[in-house]
Each structure stands twice: as C-alpha cells, then as structure tokens.
Write a structure and sequence with these properties.
mainly beta, single chain, four-stranded antiparallel sheet, 117 residues
Length: 117
C-alpha cells in the first residue's frame, strides 16, 4: 500500500495550494480518505475527510477555506486550500481508513506546507 502525497510548498498568507494524494495497493472505493496535519510541538489533527459516498467533514479552523475531494478513477484525494493563514503551517499527511476494517489504516509520507510572507 502506498499513499503518495504532493503539492506542498511555501505560500504567502491569503494564497492557495492544492495537495494531492495518489493511492495504490488498496481498493480506493472502500476507504475513507482524510488529510491530517501536524505542526511542531502539536499533536496530529484531522483537517478534512471524505467518505466513500462523498460526504465531507472539516475541522472548524478550515471550514469555508479548504475543500476535500476524491477522484475514484484516479485513486486520488485532493485538498484545495484557499485563504491560507500562517497557522496553517504544518506537515500534511494523507490517510486511508477502510470503511469496515479499522485495522486497515494507512498513512502517506507527509508534505510540508509553509504559509509565510
């Protein structure tokens, strides 16, 4: 199983980035996909998740600014991040969790997002 995250980088406050996570080795349609982030000194936290049916949920801190989506044909989940703030700076991780088998839980390698002027 491999979750390959990409799209991180340095952006100014108010800017945008789109993260991608390409999954292989899993039946993508049976996994809830999520993005988590971890800033230095903080615990890893859920940013957004999308179910197999397309339902989404977001952390309060990113509601209205971030959008998660999934492309079943490409086995890829995206995180569109707009109106970025310095407090969004963190390493972002892609996560895949099987709908029924909780032990089938996988993480990507992380991609750094830095919001700074």
């Amino acid at each position: 199983v491999q979750l390959q995250a990409s799209g991180g980088g340095l952006v100014q406050p108010g800017g945008s980035l789109r993260l991608s996570c390409a999954a292989s080795g899993i039946t993508f349609s049976t996994y809830v996909m999520g993005w988590y982030r971890q800033a230095p000194g903080n615990e890893r936290e859920l940013v957004a998740a999308v179910t197999t049916g397309g339902d989404t949920n977001y952390a309060d801190s990113v509601k209205g600014r971030f959008t998660i989506s999934r492309d079943v044909a490409r086995n890829t989940v995206y995180l569109q991040m707009d109106s970025l703030k310095p407090e969004d700076t963190a390493v972002y991780y892609c996560n895949a969790r099987h709908v029924f088998i909780s032990l089938r839980l996988y993480w990507g390698q992380g991609t750094q997002v830095t919001v700074s002027s």
